[in-house]
Design a protein that fits this description.
The complex is a heterodimer of chains A (248) and B (322). By secondary structure, chain A is of the alpha/beta class. Chain A has helices at 37-53, 68-77, 93-107, 126-134, 187-193, 231-243; strands at 2-6, 9-11, 33-35, 56-63, 81-86, 111-115, 137-148, 151-158, 161-168, 171-175, 198-202, 210-216, 225-228. Chain A has a single domain, classed as Rossmann fold. Chain B folds into 2 domains: 2-177, Rossmann fold; 204-321, Rossmann fold. The radius of gyration of chain B is 21 Å and the shape is elongated. Classes of the chains: A alpha/beta (248), B alpha/beta (322). The complex binds flavin-adenine dinucleotide (FAD) and adenosine monophosphate.
Chain lengths: 248, 322
């Protein structure tokens, strides 16, 4: 089976965000980029499926040249081939999903793994839209997946519990933490990845469905009050929560 | 004609409060933007509509099928997409819940229109909506517009108010019995997590971190959460150590929350933790290190030993609530 994994390339979680000079993008000077954390679960799930039923794992990214670093990491973990849909344009999420879907279709993949969310623009949307464009089934936010005789049983996390969802191939699964423990790239894997191919493809310019007016930082919080360190301070705290904040 | 369609999420025969927030928000723009505001409900048996009091839409489309007591994405999407009918512009409103996050993108893709997820502000300026959404886990805010005539948006729960004296009038229900819904993706059952309220729905959260020393002390957090009527949260350090389940994790790779009160106990305040809770209305920190970064976020700080102070906190809360 041909398996696709969508891998995004995002600023490290420890990044302090600064707005860049154009007011629309972040200032990337000194920012380290990583594989989107949820995509590591997606890669792992793709590799597990390949080990179970055999096949090829394609990792696909849409972005600039540096996106290749994340694809390389996925190859080092064990993916077979990388594809970079190369662009310096910032597409809206619907367009990103459409471009990824077109590539997945031309590769002939029957199953797609994505992360549940990119930790840069926090959409949580791309996997579901890829499925819509491909006419595939889709379960999002999956914390447990069982594949048996071509049918899928997934548990997805919702408020206060899980939904047990049954569906069939072809399918898109968006991975949430808990679905697996992503493997580390072994030294052997890193060496092997050097020989693997990352194919670059250009994508057509397209009109965006969204217009960004700008990024700004949230208003800074006023420094709070230290009330003390003993039982009296706790009494004062409860009183303030009741009378000043009015939240209890 | 411009119209709004608000998806009302039903759990256990009740319309979710976050859906009411979405409905109330859409209704604020009736007259000054929308000509009509409609709502859509999917159910097995109709929910209690009396909670809509003060927020009555022009009509409520009720889609009924025995399967609709649980989430069936394909069927929901199909009906919602047809609702746009001949309007020149349709704006779909969802709440950014687990269900809303799953369904809204499907509708946007089906209509090939602009999508804006997890909004925290909406402004109507010169006849255009400007939407604001937190990005980079709330470390920045993006102001944006959707350039397609149809639009799909989801609103972050607990952020938009429910007006009590907004639109009144009679509730107009249009009921459709859906035959042969698409069940190619079918929710077969619900597994409820045992224990208390979920962090993403709670208006008060008490979270514990490594400062609690071990899982055996977590009952101190639970008792305080219980006394306050809130949910239990956790830092990633505590989840990684296996003291608490991941669903309780607050932060960049956990849940993003904005309760009215967030109590951080024995949590240092790493940037990834702050990202998930910085928009809380009031933040209390209890930490024995007075230089812990969490105090820079906190409205009220207590510099002391959590294990000693938590029982006192719980007692004091019980006293005033008792
Ligand atoms: C990719 C990535 C994603 C991450 N995502 C998240 C996330 O989503 N959420 C998250 O929380 N973290 C996340 N982290 C981890 C984050 O960087 C911190 O490591 C974590 O938040 C620390 O948890 P903590 O505050 O419980 O522990 P610590 O940092 O060890 O802090 C413990 C605190 O307890 C205090 N303390 C000790 N004893 C007592 C006592 N008796 N009474 C009172 N206070 C006491 C100490 O002074 C200290 O401040 C992420 C990290 C990475 C790399
Ligand atoms: N530019 C991209 N390149 C590759 N995969 C992406 C890209 N954007 C989103 N994805 C995938 O879609 C998932 C959800 O992303 P999002 O909808 O942006 O939150 C991510 O975890 C990735 O798997």
């Amino acid at each position: 089976m041909k398996i696709a994994v969508c891998v995004n390339h995002v600023p490290d979680t420890a990044t302090k965000i600064k707005v860049g000079p154009d007011g629309k993008k972040i200032d990337t000077i000194g920012v380290t980029y990583i594989v989107n954390p949820y995509d590591e679960y997606a890669i792992e799930e793709g590799l597990k499926l390949k080990e179970k039923i055999s096949g090829t794992v394609y990792v696909i990214g849409l972005g600039g040249d540096s996106h290749k670093e994340s694809l390389k990491k996925a190859l080092a973990m064990g993916a077979d081939e990388g594809i970079l849909l190369k662009t310096d344009q910032d597409f809206d999420s619907v367009t990103v999903a459409k471009l990824l879907a077109e590539e997945i279709k031309s590769l002939g993949c029957e199953v797609v793994f994505t992360g549940k969310q990119s930790i840069d623009f926090d959409n949580s949307a791309t996997g579901q839209m890829i499925s819509e464009f491909l006419g595939f089934n889709c379960v999002s936010n999956v914390v447990s997946l069982t594949i048996e005789n071509g049918s899928l049983e997934a548990e997805r996390e919702i408020e206060g519990g899980r939904e047990v969802v049954k569906t069939t191939f072809p399918a898109v699964i968006t991975a949430q933490k808990g679905i697996n423990e992503p493997r580390y790239a072994s030294l052997k894997g890193i060496m092997a990845a050097k020989k693997k191919v990352i194919t670059e493809k250009s994508v057509a310019q397209s009109t965006s469905k969204t217009k960004s007016l700008g990024l700004r930082l949230p208003a800074p919080k006023n420094p709070g009050r230290i009330l003390g360190s003993d039982a009296e301070a706790i009494k004062e705290l409860v009183k303030l929560l009741r009378e000043e904040a009015k939240v209890i | 004609m411009k119209k709004a369609i608000v998806f009302l999420e039903v759990r256990e025969s009740r319309i979710k409060k976050s859906s009411l927030e979405a409905l109330s928000t859409a209704l604020t723009y009736k007259g000054n933007y929308f000509d009509e505001v409609h709502a859509a409900v999917f159910c097995d048996t109709p929910p209690d509509f009396s909670t809509l009091e003060g927020n009555i839409p022009d009509s409520i489309q009720v889609y009924k099928n025995i399967e609709f007591s649980l989430y069936t994405p394909q069927a929901f999407k199909k009906e919602l997409a047809t609702l746009k009918s001949d309007a020149v512009e349709t704006v779909y409103f969802f709440s950014n819940t687990a269900l809303g996050k799953d369904l809204a993108p499907r509708v946007a893709a089906a209509l090939n229109c602009g999508l804006a997820m997890d909004l925290t502000e909406i402004k109507l300026e010169n006849g255009n909506f400007t939407f604001t959404r937190p990005v980079f886990a709330g470390k920045a805010l993006e102001d944006m517009q959707l350039e397609t005539s149809d639009k799909v948006v989801t609103l972050r729960p607990n952020v938009f108010p429910v007006k009590t004296a907004g639109a009144s009038g009679e509730i107009k229900l249009t009921t459709t019995e859906v035959s042969n819904p698409d069940l190619s993706i079918k929710t077969s059952s619900l597994k409820k997590a045992e224990g208390m309220l979920d962090v993403s729905e709670a208006s008060i959260i008490v979270s514990g971190g490594r400062g609690l020393k071990g899982p055996e002390n977590y009952h101190l957090i639970e008792s305080l959460a219980d006394a306050l009527g809130g949910a239990v949260g956790a830092s990633r350090a505590v989840v990684d150590a296996g003291w608490r389940p991941h669903r309780e994790q607050v932060g960049q790779t956990g849940k993003t929350v904005s309760p009215s009160l967030y109590v951080a106990v024995g949590i240092s305040g790493a940037i990834q933790h702050l990202a998930g809770m910085s928009t809380s209305k009031y933040i209390v920190a209890i930490n024995k290190d007075k230089d812990a970064p969490i105090f820079q976020m906190a409205d009220y700080g207590i510099t002391g030993d959590a294990l000693e102070l938590l029982p006192i906190f719980t007692e004091e809360v019980k006293k005033i609530k008792g």
